[in-house]
Design brief:
heterodimer, A: about 675 residues, alpha+beta, Immunoglobulin-like, 4-stranded mixed β-sheet, 3-stranded antiparallel β-sheet, 28 helices, disordered N terminus, B: about 425 residues, alpha/beta, Alkaline Phosphatase, subunit A, 2 domains, 8-stranded mixed β-sheet, two-stranded antiparallel sheet, about 15% strand
Chain lengths: ~675, ~425
């Protein structure tokens, strides 16, 4: 039977001074559950204060109070125990400093007589023990809605039962978007604007979250129906926010979009015609299927794989000591060509074969472990290299144990190989390797335990990571952003959409092309990028919550390929630089566009040579460069140029179109 | 880096913070408020030996002292290499920190610490000093870049976790070459001809559809100004300087880069980083520093003193702060190949100009130049000091792409008050 010893914290002091009536059942107490959280909530254990690596003013707490035993020792033993005075509890430094009865550089943290003061005082009066009436293992933290906000409830498992306790007063609350909802110290929430915000609670090393949604109330509501697995989840998400989705982009925009995404360049005029000629419902699917069989697709996605698996682009200055990774690049290209299932790709990377180089190009086993976490699981375990992270489940010892998996094997002097070892700093003890436990309830691992723990292991984190990454590549917005940082306090926008995508990924056994097909045939892929009237670009909720597409610049490679595709020839220039000013100077003056237009027989010159009517020339030029027909206003503006200046006019207009805003943008 | 990260969630929040219903919720105050102060960083890439430049040890054993002779400078107790005679003469007008000490003895990590004021982290790449000084938003009326690197930027002299718009603009060429041009700055004839067409193309396209398109418009107008306006061309044109001045700075890369840096800060550029490579002297350090065209130390002596003199003559010495630094010092003991290896426990940094006191020396290394024995200073302290000299808000908070607040200046860093004026 669950036994609730929920106590309003303010009465804790009364209880301890013997005024309480509930004397029959002694109150369980544990330093880690009652004192550490208080030190966290008052920011005593933050990096700016006593949680700093060297402490503050001679008093050191573990960062975010993640090591209660050490903190208990610091409080009770250091400084000859002056921090806690059992004989005269009120004289303890632990109370006199934060109330500023004596000098405290951190200022006054709480007042004498406040709830925090009283609970510390009560604890000292009772003898400042580490634990009393052992409360059992803290199993879980959850947020329970109450009027105007949330209560944090901790679940304990003392021998064979569950006990709960309200820990709101000891819990740290934060909001993922304070412009939408602000959460106060007592768990109450102030709603500020429409949108979605997650309230994150943190208590004694446990986290919980709950969502706050406030409708934008746009009408009329979107009542479209769909059978596409992604779209139903996405539309439900928009409905919960009261947002209307924007219209679908027109066929010309979609043609350009899907060609740039899958072939790395805009469509040729023939491809454009073929796209328009298809029945609207089948345009994207048919075109994607065709493009995915091309070598261009393999090149483009091998590039995405490289970026995902963190192979440097070229021999960058920062990587001057590292080899060019030719074999690994070739491996990726072949993987896309053969449509190798993504779980198999991961297995190769974790195995000892050629693709093992992705991991072994990092020297330090800890770098390797973090690399695997980031790229294959989308988890940033790097914080735990140095300290336990308050918002992450990974602890320093788990980081170290997982790293031990990647310690190199060395030749054994007696013959054969000796397993590599990682040693605990300072102690010289070898660390026992252990896998990351994503699902503690998962059955025991088979032989191939490392790959199994990442790809299977009773969780779908590999699929979530990969699905999220490729969704981001194609739609321009990651559902979990940053894609290498999936954690409780970094929730997905449209979580249900990500779930649906992960199911598709599992259903197709991690087939990349099927995943791409699912994404590009959805309505969320086909949305128009035109912002609504009067919407400020930076704050438009439609872009934020995926109710419309957000235009983004072509990547340097895409830009160069687009120019080459227009002129119909390869060009010797480097792709544009990343600095935005340098890129615009490059567009104007590098000679990439000019050089292409000066090539004999280029596609623009061919229009001048083979099309006689200026109006037709203009139409051909627009289809070639911008993959659409000229609008009447554009015809009015540019026809005189073509009529009066002939071939020069045509070349100059082609230049202006390629230097223009629309050409450089993926809309 | 993916250009889609050009604009990040943080920018979104920043703009939100301008809305009246969110008073003071998010901090977006500029680092420098309405200031015309500028910074020139002379970056001695590779690790400049402190013993053979600003921290001479004439009394030490020959295998420490080295082949190069040190002499006392115009500042008492400060010994400079005899190959830096002019610098020795102006030491009484500079601030010298001889006790910079760091645990990072690898080029990449040491440079990261020195240029960003933060030790490298496995989870974050921090922005360099030039990037933190670059305003968040490019205003429409600002025709020249805020942060320029000559000839290019060190990999850790970039924007780190900040958006690409706050990265350096690299001139991409050696200003001492006769045919020096800023990369892609010379307007191509077709671009000139098609410019009005381009304007029509963009205006018929209507309003920009995203923040990245709006930024492209602003940078295009900046690019247009840079390649077409006579003012911008003049700004980068060293031929506008008299032959005497050009000669005074030294005819090679460092000298002409320093001269260009002066022109740029005069024209309103906030930060200029001059990258002068070739200090990684693992072998025959004495020859490497005193031979060549021109010898390294001679080029340094000439360029830095010319800059100092020129800034003063033009009345810029209160407005422009100059820092000469390197990722670390070099081993006090000469190695078997006659060189010195990486040594991060001690190095020297020279500063002068705006916000700084003159004729101060901070800290001291031991008799062999191995470690500070007085007033150790971390690269973070130094970073903080330079921002302090520029009058920056040392409490300012930056935000990582995922919204985590990070102080611009490392929490534990303290400015070196002895060299700051006011």
């Amino acid at each position: 039977m669950p036994c609730s010893w929920a106590i309003r914290a303010a009465t804790a002091a009364l209880l301890s001074t013997g005024l309480a009536s509930q004397a029959d059942e002694p109150k369980p107490f544990h330093f880690a559950h009652d004192i550490s959280p208080l030190l966290v909530k008052q920011a005593c254990a933050s990096a700016e204060c006593h949680g700093a690596a060297t402490g503050q003013a001679g008093f050191k707490l573990s960062l975010f109070a993640m090591n209660p035993a050490a903190d208990y020792a610091a409080l009770t033993q250091d400084l000859d125990g002056r921090r806690i005075d059992l004989a005269k509890p009120e004289a303890s430094l632990l109370l006199r400093k934060p109330t500023r009865q004596i000098k405290h550089k951190g200022g006054r943290i709480f007042k004498k007589g406040s709830a925090d003061y009283e609970s510390l005082l009560g604890w000292i009066r009772r003898g400042a023990a580490f634990t009393e009436n052992e409360p059992g293992r803290l199993a879980k933290l959850r947020l329970e809605p109450r009027d105007g906000g949330f209560s944090a409830v901790a679940e304990y498992r003392p021998a064979k039962r569950t006990a709960t306790r309200d820990v709101t007063r000891l819990t740290v609350f934060s909001s993922t978007d304070e412009t939408v909802a602000l959460v106060h110290d007592d768990g109450s929430v102030t709603r500020r604007a429409p949108g979605e915000a997650w309230i994150i609670a943190r208590y004694a090393g446990h986290n919980a979250r709950a969502v706050i949604r406030q409708s934008f109330n746009e009408d009329p509501p979107d009542e479209s129906t769909t059978t596409h697995p992604l779209d139903s989840a996405w539309l439900a998400g928009l409905e919960s926010l009261g947002l209307r989705s924007s219209a679908e982009a027109d066929a010309f925009v979609l043609a350009r979009r899907v060609h740039i995404d899958l072939a790395g360049r805009p469509p040729t005029p023939d491809e454009l015609d073929a796209f328009i000629a298809l029945p609207p419902a089948r345009r994207l699917a048919k075109t994607a299927d065709r493009l995915m069989r091309s070598e261009e697709f393999a090149q483009v996605f091998a590039g995405h794989y490289r970026h995902w698996l963190e192979l440097p682009e070229g021999r960058l200055e920062k990587d001057f000591e590292k080899p060019r990774n030719t074999k690994l690049r070739r491996y990726l290209l072949d993987a896309v060509r053969q449509n190798k299932p993504l779980p198999q790709l991961a297995r190769d990377i974790l195995g000892g074969g050629e693709a093992g180089g992705f991991v072994s190009r990092h020297n330090d086993p800890r770098d390797r472990a973090e690399y695997v976490g980031r790229t294959l699981l989308g988890l940033s375990i790097g914080c735990a290299r140095c300290h336990d992270h308050p918002m992450d489940r990974w602890q320093q010892r788990e980081h170290l144990a997982f790293s031990a998996y990647f310690a190199d094997a060395r030749p054994n002097p007696e013959g054969g190989m000796m397993a590599g070892k990682l040693f605990l700093p300072g102690t010289g003890k070898a660390v026992q390797p252990a896998l990351l436990q994503l699902n503690p309830a998962a059955p025991l691992a088979p032989d191939d335990e490392l790959a199994w723990s990442i790809l299977d292991g009773g969780h779908d984190q590999f699929g979530r990571n990969v699905a999220n990454r490729f969704f981001g590549i194609l739609v321009g917005k990651h559902l979990v952003d940053a894609p290498d940082d999936h954690r409780l306090s970094n929730p997905a926008i449209h979580g249900a959409l990500l779930d649906a995508l992960v199911r598709e990924f599992g259903r197709t056994d991690g087939d990349l092309r099927k995943l791409i097909r699912t994404i590009v045939t959805s309505r969320v892929y086909a949305l128009a990028s035109q912002p609504g009237e009067g919407r400020a670009l930076a704050t438009d909720p439609a872009a934020r919550y995926l109710a419309r597409r957000e235009a983004r610049p072509l990547t340097p490679t895409q830009f160069k390929r687009a120019v080459e595709s227009v002129v119909g020839d390869e060009l010797p220039h480097e792709p544009p630089p990343e600095s935005p000013l340098a890129r615009q100077l490059y567009v104007l003056n590098s000679g990439l566009i000019q050089g292409g237009l000066a090539k004999p027989g280029n596609s623009v010159a061919a229009i001048g040579d083979f099309v006689s009517e200026p109006a037709d020339q203009l139409r051909e030029l627009f289809r070639l460069v911008l993959s659409r027909d000229p609008r009447p206003s554009e015809a009015d503006a540019f026809l005189p140029t073509l009529q009066k200046q002939g071939a020069t006019g045509l070349g100059d207009l082609a230049f202006a179109l390629m230097a223009g805003r629309e050409f450089g943008s993926l809309r | 880096m993916n250009p889609s990260t050009l604009f990040r969630r943080r920018d979104f929040l920043m703009t939100m913070s301008a809305l009246p219903w969110l008073p003071g919720l998010l901090q977006g105050a500029p680092l420098l408020r309405k200031s015309n102060r500028s910074l020139i960083v002379l970056w001695m890439d590779g690790g400049m030996s402190h013993i053979d430049t600003f921290d001479g040890k004439p009394e030490a054993r020959p295998d420490i002292r080295g082949e190069l002779v040190s002499r006392e400078s115009s500042l008492e107790g400060v010994f400079l290499s005899e190959h830096l005679p002019r610098l020795a003469g102006i030491m009484d007008q500079c601030a010298l920190v001889r006790s910079v000490t760091s645990p990072e003895g690898n080029h990449g990590r040491g440079s990261h610490y020195m240029l960003t004021g933060r030790r490298p982290s496995p989870v974050l790449e921090y922005p360099s000093i030039g990037s933190v000084l670059t305003p968040e938003k490019l205003s429409d009326g600002n025709p020249i870049p805020s942060y320029v690197a000559i000839p290019d930027a060190h990999p850790y002299a970039r924007q780190g976790f900040l958006p690409l718009t706050r990265g350096p603009f690299e001139v991409g060429g050696d200003p001492s070459k006769g045919d020096f041009r800023v990369r892609n700055m010379a307007a191509s004839p077709q671009a000139q001809r098609a410019l009005s067409l381009l304007q029509t193309v963009d205006s018929l396209d209507g309003k920009p559809r995203s923040e990245s398109e709006a930024a492209r418009d602003r940078f295009l107008s900046q690019a247009r100004f840079m390649s077409l306006s006579p003012e911008a061309r003049e700004l980068f044109d060293l031929n506008r300087e008299t032959p005497e001045i050009r000669k005074r700075y030294g005819r090679k890369l460092l000298g002409q880069s320093a001269l260009l840096a002066r022109r740029l800060v005069e024209g309103g550029v906030r930060t200029v980083l001059v990258r002068f490579k070739g200090w990684d002297h693992h072998e025959s350090i004495d020859r490497a520093m005193t031979y060549g065209f021109p010898p390294k130390l001679e080029a340094l002596d000439q360029a830095v003193t010319a800059l100092h003199e020129d800034l003063a003559r033009r009345g810029l010495d209160e407005r422009v702060t100059v820092v000469l630094a390197s990722e670390f010092g070099r081993t006090p003991r000469i190695n078997p190949r006659g060189g010195r290896d990486h040594w991060a426990r001690a190095s020297s940094v020279l500063l002068f100009g705006g916000g700084l006191r003159r004729g101060v020396v901070v800290g001291k290394t031991d008799a062999n130049g191995e470690a500070p024995i007085e007033r150790p200073v971390s690269p973070a302290d130094l970073f903080c000091t330079v921002l302090g000299a520029l009058g920056a808000d040392l409490e300012q908070v930056l935000h990582t792409p995922d919204g985590r607040p990070v102080r611009t200046v490392n929490e534990s860093a303290k400015p070196i008050r002895e060299i700051l004026r006011s």
